[in-house]
Amino acid sequence: MASLDREDPNYFGAGPAMLPTSVLQQAALDLINYDNLGLGVGEISHRSAPAIEVVDETKQLFKKLLEIPDTHEVFFLQGGGTTGFSSIPPNLVASFVKKHGKPGKCAYAITGSWSKKSYEEAVRLGFYCEVLTDSKKAYGKFGDIEPFEQWKKPTPGETAYVYYCDNETVNGVEFPFIPEYEGIEVVADLSSNILSRKMDISKFGLIMAGAQKNVGLAGITIYIIKKALLEQATDDELKALGVPLAPIATHYPTVVKNNSAYNTIPIFTVHILKLVLQNLIAKGGLEAQEQLNKRKASKLYAALDQYPKLYKQPVSKGVRSDMNVVFTIEGEGLEAEFLKLAKEKKLDGLKGHRSVGGMRASLYNAVTEHSVDLLVDFVNEFGKAHSN
Amino acid sequence: MASLDREDPNYFGAGPAMLPTSVLQQAALDLINYDNLGLGVGEISHRSAPAIEVVDETKQLFKKLLEIPDTHEVFFLQGGGTTGFSSIPPNLVASFVKKHGKPGKCAYAITGSWSKKSYEEAVRLGFYCEVLTDSKKAYGKFGDIEPFEQWKKPTPGETAYVYYCDNETVNGVEFPFIPEYEGIEVVADLSSNILSRKMDISKFGLIMAGAQKNVGLAGITIYIIKKALLEQATDDELKALGVPLAPIATHYPTVVKNNSAYNTIPIFTVHILKLVLQNLIAKGGLEAQEQLNKRKASKLYAALDQYPKLYKQPVSKGVRSDMNVVFTIEGEGLEAEFLKLAKEKKLDGLKGHRSVGGMRASLYNAVTEHSVDLLVDFVNEFGKAHSN
Fold first, then answer.
1. Catalytic-residue membership of A189
2. How far, in whole angstroms, is CA B124 from its chain's centroid?
3. N or C: fewer beta carbons within 10 Å in chain B?
């Protein structure tokens, strides 16, 4: 039988992303025999005590790492960000109806392809939506964020939530601020930067984050919700107002009431979350991880900045992502050569998203500083060879 | 480091269920280094060639094992049966509108707790539903199925589909027939008996089956759809008719068009499906599995039938499930004693569903005949000890 060893990869893929080797090794063992039960963690009933313990412990670890206040609750859903795009409007509007007796508007900041998709899905489902800012309209491309004071102002008492994507994975744009308006709930997609740095969770009505970048395998999404928002109008009230309902498996109050196991929760996938969070704590927690991530990103941006004629960066300096560093390479055939030479040096996953092209180096939590140093060396080497 | 070995469990849990040890061992290795890529199968991009190959190969294996005709397509969704309950009415009604220019009724056979849940969700979402048969109303309990000729007849041209649950996991009731009506699509939930026996797929408009019983881990659901049903009315047409839309990640035409990767597909979970199907083929395919399953179930029912005063079976003989054998034990404290003694013999997972109590022995594909023989011996032994 082959071994559970591997060389640590230098992998910069945008997600599903690499996970710490030690986490995968433990998960591999637990897949076969978990906690001496004689059964793997994926085979036990989702209603058994060991499964409930996995869910509870994972929730506790999130609460600890993110310092989630008692006003907020953590839960898990299958389905990733796209399911979030669909489930957020019906749930948040149902909360708004409960409080205000009428449906509220869904306000979106469009700063890249993910927030755009989320907005489009809310419109498609028939919710009353408005756009507060659209980077493409403002700048002709995604790569910047309009100054907050220039955004269209949503109306408190009429707006169910303001939605934004804190880190746009495809476009490499990360918010340097939280778009807070007095009296309006903030909803954030943190799929590609959750647990990359500290955040003040108390400012959010709802956070949604797919696991497959910083915290686990594809197949599970983390939600952090202000408990007050679990008070929703009834299905009948919503139907009478013409508000579409969330499918029951994504009806947040039902999911929370059933400790994320209203339907069968994929326990193996949650178990991996748990192992990743334990590993993060063992390595110094969020503070250490944030410092490491800042260092990784600074090094790579600094290298790219040294060769501005070769490496073109479409993202403005103030909104550059620490997670996804995007750039193009000027010169016929040079992008292909860059990828080919990188591969020879075992630097993988650098190709940009098919919709925008170019390069993208994702520097998620599990990407080591050593991997980034190797990439930086290569960026410099390639830069020298192709500058004159 | 601990090993990947384990003693084969004697586990009769209803799901998530046990998987073949050899499958889990291969999956454990692939979690760390898949196909010598230096990365685990859960870490590669869902749009990479090796990931697409996993999806395509898994689809092909389903087509081969179930002899799926070219008129039908296979796709995967996250979310399990409950997500299926919510996604079936909007999709199938959208197909009906495309063909008939008006919404159709959703007709349900209620033969146990799962079909009941599915019906209730369709009603909740606002679809126009009717009940063709309700075992609880007919017999005072779930445990039988009304003769097909006694069902209420749905009207062709007005009924979008007839829905039934082929095997009711909680109640131990399995259909001995397919409720076919000329000109009406049949929709079946095969979550707990897919690949347990041969089936004529051509008879179905749609099949939905959560993986976590016979074919894999929780977190993925298999759909087999008649291709003609992928023709749907547009969102605008549906909105104008007041038909609720499916969330985009469960909009079947979108999912099929994107080869099940419109959103991030959990590749590790699909990979396990693939390994389970390969293992099934290596062991003789569906024919061999069906014979094995029939033998396993017959042996256990025969043992229980020998002690009718002790072991009470709530399910009528003609509709007994080969997958989930349910029974209660007469006599103060005897159920607890049965479970205790079973556990001492390493026979696990026998407790019935919390909603019905009693015992339930699930005999899914991965449960070996040896395990069943041990259980049968114990049932006999316990039977002798408590009969007089």
1. yes
2. 23
3. C
| In-domain check, residue B388 | no
| Tens digit of each residue's pLDDT, chain B (388 residues) | 468 999 999 999 999 999 999 999 999 999 999 999 999 999 999 999 999 999 999 999 999 999 999 999 999 999 999 999 999 999 999 999 999 999 999 999 999 999 999 999 999 999 999 999 999 999 999 999 999 999 999 999 999 999 999 999 999 999 999 999 999 999 999 999 999 999 999 999 999 999 999 999 999 999 999 999 999 999 999 999 999 999 999 999 999 999 999 999 999 999 999 999 999 999 999 999 999 999 999 999 999 999 999 999 999 999 999 999 999 999 999 999 999 999 999 999 999 998 888 999 999 999 999 999 999 999 999 999 998 6
Distance CA A125, CA B248 (A): 9
Contact B264 A218 (CB under 8 A): yes
Q: How far is CA B92 from CA B39, B42, B207, B234, B252, in A?
A: 40, 32, 12, 13, 9
Instruction: Say if CB A264 and CB A46 are below 8 A apart.
Output: yes
Partner residue opposite A83 with nearest CB, options B14, B15, B247: B247
Same structural domain for residues B276 and B310? Answer: no
Given this model, what pLDDT does residue B354 score?
86
Among A30, A134, A166, A189, the one annotated catalytic: A189
Q: Which two tokens stand for residue B358?
A: 């009693």
Quick check: A2 pLDDT over 70? no
Q: Which residue is associated with the tokens 């957020």?
A: A88
Both B144 and B252 in one domain: the answer is yes
Helical axes B113-124 vs B80-100, angle rounded to 10°: 50
Beta-strand (E) ranges in B95-244? 105-110, 129-134, 159-165, 167-168, 173-174, 185-189, 206-210, 221-226
> Which of A114, A134, A144, A296 does the annotation list as catalytic?
A114
Is A11 in contact with B265 (Cβ distance < 8 A)? no
Is B6 a member of any domain? no
Where residue B113 sits, what CATH number does that domain have? 3.40.640.10
CB-CB contact of A103 with A93 (8 Å): yes
Of A88, A61, A294, A272, nearest in space to A193 by CA: A294
Closest chain A CA to residue B8:
A38
Q: Does B303 lie in the same domain as B163?
A: no
Task: Report d(CA A129, CA B216) in Å as an integer.
Answer: 40
Torsion of CA B137, B138, B143, B148, to 10 degrees: -120
Q: Tell me the CA distances in angstroms from A317 to A173, A176, A371, B252, one per residue in order.
A: 10, 11, 23, 41
Interface ipTM above 0.90: yes
Say if residue A5 is exposed, middle or buried (CB neighbours under 10 Å; 0-12, 13-18, 19+).
exposed
Structural domain harbouring A290: 285-385
For the four alpha carbons of B146, B147, B150 and B151, in that order, the dihedral sign comes to positive
Distance of CA A11 to the CA centre of its chain: 18
- Dihedral sign for Cα B342, B347, B352, B353, please: positive
CA distances for B260 relative to B59, B252, B270, angstroms: 10, 9, 11
Q: Which of residues 208-267 of B touch A (CB under 8 A)?
A: 210, 212, 217-220, 235, 239, 244-245, 247-250, 262-267
Task: Specify the CATH number for the domain of residue B315.
Answer: 3.90.1150.10
CB-based contacts of A226: which residues, under 8 Å, 6+ apart?
Answer: A71, A72, A185, A204, A205, A206
Angle between helices B267-282 and B285-305 (to 10 degrees): 80
Encoded tokens for A250 = 């994504």
The answer to whether the CB of A350 falls within 8 A of the CB of A359 is: yes
